[in-house]
Amino acid sequence: MREVYLDNSATTKVSEKAAKKATEMMEKIFGNPSSLHQKGFEAQKEVEKAKEIIAKEIGADTDEIYFTSGGTEANNLAILGAVNAMRRKGNKIVTSAIEHSSVYETCRYLESTGIQVVYLKSDITGRISKNQILSAIDEKTILVTMMMVNNEIGSILPVDQIRNCIEQKKSPAIFHVDAVQAFGKIPVKVSKLKADLISASAHKVHAPKGCGFLYKSKNTRIAPIFFGGEQQGKVRPGTEAASLIAAFGEAVSEFNLSENYGKVSNLRDYLMEELGKIEGVTINSSRDGIPYVVNFSTGKVKAETMLNFLSSKGIYVSGGSACAKGKKSRVLKNIGLLDEKITSSIRVSFSKYNSKQDIDDLIKYLKEGLSSFSGSN
Predict the structure, then answer these.
(1) What's the CA gap between 352 and 58, in Å, rounded?
(2) CA distances (Å), 259 to each of 185, 262, 264, in order?
(3) Out of 107, 165, 211, 323, which one is annotated catalytic?
(4) Are 196 and 330 within one domain?
(5) Residues whose CB is less than 8 angstroms from the CB of residue 344 and which lie 6 or more positions away in sequence, other chains included
(6) Mean pLDDT value of segment 75-97
(7) Neighbour-count burial for 312-350, b at 16+ CB within 10 Å, e otherwise
(8) What's this model's pTM, rounded to 2 decimal places?
(9) CB-based contacts of 20: which residues, under 8 Å, 6+ apart?
(10) Residues 169 and 48 both lie in one domain
C-alpha cells in the first residue's frame, strides 16, 4: 500500500542528512558539551556549528540563540520568563484567541496568578488587524505574544507590525513571536520582525523531535524557569542535547524557502481546486494564508471517522492540532465556524516531499469515504 503523509504541521519526516548527523553524534561525538576533554570539545563544536547556522538563518548573533526541548518549552520560557522579569512594570499580556496551546494555556495559567490577558479575536479567515493590536496595548502591557502562522488554518498574523504598535503606545512590553509554523517555510528575520523573543521547533523542519530554540535579543532580560548548571548562560540550564541540536542545524542548512514555497503553492492550489469539485466540502483556509496548510470541512462525516478511514488507506492527515488529542478545535470555534464544520474539519499540511500524486490519492479516498459514511452520520 502506498503511504501518503500529509500531516506535516504535526511533525515532519527527518531528512536523510539530519538523521545521519544525529546518528554520527550518538555513536562517535557523544561527549557532554560541557566536559573539559576532547570528547566534550568535539560535541561543543557541533553545538556551536548548529547555533551559527540557525543564527545566520534568522539574522541573529550566535549568543542570542538558546536551545530548548522544542517549541512548547521555548514558548513557555519566553512567556513565563518575560512576565516574571517584567511584573514590576505592569500586569497585562496581549495575545490572540487562536494561539497554539503552548501559548494559550500558559497565558491561562498566568491569568490565575493575577495577570490580565487580552485574547484578540480573529475574523473567520484567522486574520487579526493592526488596529486591534494597537487598541489592546497600553502602558501596563508587559508582553505581546503572537504566532506568525496559525497551525490549524495557515493564516498569517501581522507580527511584523507589532513592534510599531508597542512603540506608538510607548509601552514597556516585551515582544514574542511563536514562529514554530513559519520557520523553514517563510522568511523569519529578526530585522523585519524586530521581536525580542522568537521560538521555533526542530521537528517541524525535518529534524528530530526533542529540540527547538529561543532567540533572545541581547537587550532583553527574561527570568529562567529552570535552575541547574551554567549551561546557556543559565537562561536554559541543563546538558544540551548535542545530537538533536546538530541534526537541527543540518536540517536548517538544507532550507530552500523560495523553491519549496513555489512547489507547495502549486500543490495547495491543486488541492483547493479538487476540493471545490466535491459537493458539500467547504474550505476554511484562506488563499492569502501560508500554502503549507489547508483546512476544510465535509459537513457530512465526522473528522474522526474520516481520519480512521483515510488512515486505513495509507493517507495520513489531521483533524486539527495534534496537541489537541482529538478534542474539538478551539481555533475553529474562535474564528466563528459552526459545530458541523468544526467536527468534520480536516487539516492537510504539506512538506517539500509531497507530490501531486499524494493529492490525487487523498481526493480518491476522500470521495470514497464520503460516499461510504455520509448516510450514517
Answers:
(1) 20
(2) 10, 5, 9
(3) 323
(4) no
(5) 297, 298, 299, 300, 301, 302, 303, 306
(6) 96
(7) ebebbbbbbbeeeeeeebbbbebbebeeebbbbbbbbbb
(8) 0.95
(9) 250
(10) yes
Q: CA-CA distance, 247 to 325, in Å (whole number)? A: 28
Asked whether residue 140 falls in the same domain as residue 104, the answer is yes
Across the chain, the runs of DSSP E, i.e. the strands, are: 4-5, 65-68, 92-96, 116-120, 141-147, 174-178, 197-201, 212-216, 282-283, 293-297, 315-316, 345-349
Predicted confidence (pLDDT) per residue in 12-29, tens digit = 999 999 999 999 999 999
Q: How many CB atoms lie within 10 A of CB 88?
A: 8
**What are the tens digits of pLDDT across the range 101-142?**
999 999 999 999 999 999 999 998 899 999 999 999 999 999
Show the domain range for 343. Answer: 4-13+255-376
* Contact present, 83 and 115 (Cβ < 8 Å): yes
Cα angle 306-308-312, degrees, rounded to a multiple of 5: 115
The domain tally of the chain equals 2
Concatenated DSSP letters of 128-187: --HHHHHHH--TTEEEEEEESB-TTT-PBP-GGGHHHHHHHTT---EEEEE-TTTTTTS-
State the burial class of residue 308 (Cβ atoms within 10 Å of its Cβ: 0-12, 13-18, 19+): exposed
Give the phi and the psi of residue 77 in degrees, each rounded to 5. Answer: -65, -40
Element (H, E) at 228: none
Active site residue 323: yes
CA 197 to chain CA centroid, nearest Å? 14
**What phi and psi values does residue 174 have, to the nearest 5 degrees?**
-80, 145
* 218/333 same-domain check: no
Report yes or no: 162 and 129 within 8 Å, Cβ to Cβ.
no
Cα–Cα distance for residue pair 100/129, rounded to 1 Å: 19
